[in-house]
Every structure is written in structure tokens, then in C-alpha cells.
Amino acid sequence: MSEAPVGVFDSGVGGLSVLREIRARLPQESLLYVADSGHVPYGEKSPEFIRERSQAIAAFLLSQGAKALVLACNTATAAAVADLRERYPKVPIVGMEPAVKPAAAATRSGVVGVLATTGTLKSAKFAALLDRFAHDVRVITQPCPGLVEQVEAGELDSARTRELLRGWVEPLLAEGCDTLILGCTHYPFIKPLLAELVPASVRLVDTGAAVACQLQALLDRHGLRAVGTAQATRYWSSADPQAMARVLPKLLSELADVQPLCV
Ligand code: DGL
């Protein structure tokens, strides 16, 4: 049992889609959230750069008393989770990856589309995931450069976001895709828009809820579940904290202070 907070981070505000699932499942846990928006998008950066940023942010969150870490970012998980687990063998660390296994089980047409960052799609971890779970299905990958920036700006349903999405999704539908994996934590925020662009029969799959479930299991295993009342979430951004404070109400229906992150 521990009332210490759980540290959550992402390249930007995308990981808030995971944070809301953690809150829903584990309402007693206090949370710390770091948006590395000064370095977004991770999807176009080298794995070495992402590992360095992840090390700096993990060290910061632990210095703030985090009892566990959640990499609420598919791209950072692919580049850095193994390194962080090696550095902090005693800290429970949850990573995430595109939901290939559930999507492969759900598809009826046998064609699955993966929307994710270039970094995730190029990673060895993603190749291994396909090897393991995508034998009997055809998987079409679609990088979405520019979409993360739209979400960072709070443009969840603007004409530009709609146009970008349509350009990526229509070819996937034309190939018979009936299941779409949202393989980046920024994308669940444009799920309502995406749902307008695809037939109702197309499933949209993301992993936020599964991450919350995994966090619960890890906290239980380590005897670290909180039992009291959660403290208000503390937020940091490595870009303009005011910009994040402005977008928070749109993404989480929440008004909160955001501190500058200086690592
Ligand atoms: N939200 C991140 C992910 O889940 C990365 C977005 C980016 O910075 O490119 O992959």
C-alpha cells in the first residue's frame, strides 16, 4: 500500500488519453503527468534522442516521488522501455504498444489498419509484435505525420484535421480494412472525428484501458495500491505551460495549473 503518486509521461498531451483511463480504473491513485511538448513529435526523432528524453523525464518523475511509471506513448515505449526497466529494476514500469493482438482477433475481413507514428512503425518492437500476432491477417500500416501536432493544438475536429485523416483512412477502407488500430496515444482524442469518416461497422481499437489494467496488476503485485483519496493531478510541460493549460479543458474537461518542466 502506498499513497505516493504514479508518474505518467508522453511526448505531449496524447498520454492524457491514457491518464483518463487510469483515473477511471484507479480513482484512488494520485497522478503526475509530464508532457514533453517541447520535443514533440517523438515519431520523427531518433530512438537515441527518445531514450535520452525518457531517461531525463523518468528521473524527474522519480525525484517527485513517483512509485511507478507509465510510458503513455507507443513511440517512447518502443525506443526506451527496455532501457528504463534496466535502469530502475525495482520500479514498476508500464509501457504500451499498438493493439495488434485484439485487432487480429476482432477483424472479420482479415484486413487490419494501423495508424501510428513513423517511429513506432519502424521499430523492432513493432516488427516483433506483427511476427507474433498477425499471422492470419493482412496488416496495412499508415504513418500519420502532422496529426500529433493537430491534437497538441487542440484541433480535434478542424477542417485540416478532417482532411488529413480522410487522406489516410480512405485508402485503408478501399483495401477492405474493417478494424483500425489507434497506435498513438494522441489519436483517441480524434476518435469522434474518425468515427464520422468510417462506416459504423469499422472497429476503432486503442490500448488506454488495457494500460490502466496492467498498471493495476503491477501495483497489486508490488503491494503499492493507494487506498486513500487521490491528490489533484500535477502537470508539467517542456513547452509553453500556458498552451497546455489552454488545451486541458478540451482534452480532459479540466482546468489546472501546468508547471514548466526544466529537464
Ligand atoms: N503519443 C505518442 C505515441 O503514442 C507519440 C506522438 C509523437 O510525439 O510523435 O506514439
Radius of gyration: 18 Å
How widely separated are the two ends?
30 Å
CATH class call of the largest domain: Alpha Beta
Shape descriptor reads globular
Predict the CATH topology of the largest domain.
Rossmann fold
Across the major sheet, the strand order is: 4-3-1-2-9-10
The CATH architecture of the largest domain would be 3-Layer(aba) Sandwich
Major β-sheet, in short? 6 strands, parallel
Assign the structural class, choosing from mainly alpha, mainly beta, alpha/beta, alpha+beta, or little secondary structure. alpha/beta
Give the amount of beta strand, in percent.
15-25%
What ligand species are in this complex? Answer: D-glutamic acid
Question: Could you walk me through the main structural features you see in this protein, from its secondary elements to its overall organization?
Answer:
The chain is an alpha/beta fold. It has two domains: 6-96 and 208-260, Rossmann fold; 100-205, 3-Layer(aba) Sandwich (Rossmann fold). The chain has helices at residues 16-25, 47-63, 74-87, 100-106, 118-122, 124-133, 147-152, 159-174, 191-197, 208-221, 241-252, and strands at 6-10, 31-35, 68-71, 93-94, 111-116, 138-143, 179-182, 203-205, 234-237, 258-260. Strands 4-3-1-2-9-10 form a six-stranded parallel sheet, sandwiched between helices. Strands 6-5-7-8 form a four-stranded parallel sheet. β1, α1 and β2 form a beta-alpha-beta unit. α1 (16-25) packs across α10 (208-221) and α2 (47-63) crosses α3 (74-87). The longest helix is centred in the N-terminal third of the chain and has 17 residues, at 47-63. The protein is globular and about 50 Å long. The two termini are 30 Å apart. The model has no long low-confidence stretch (mean pLDDT 97). The site of D-glutamic acid (DGL) has 17 residues, from α3.
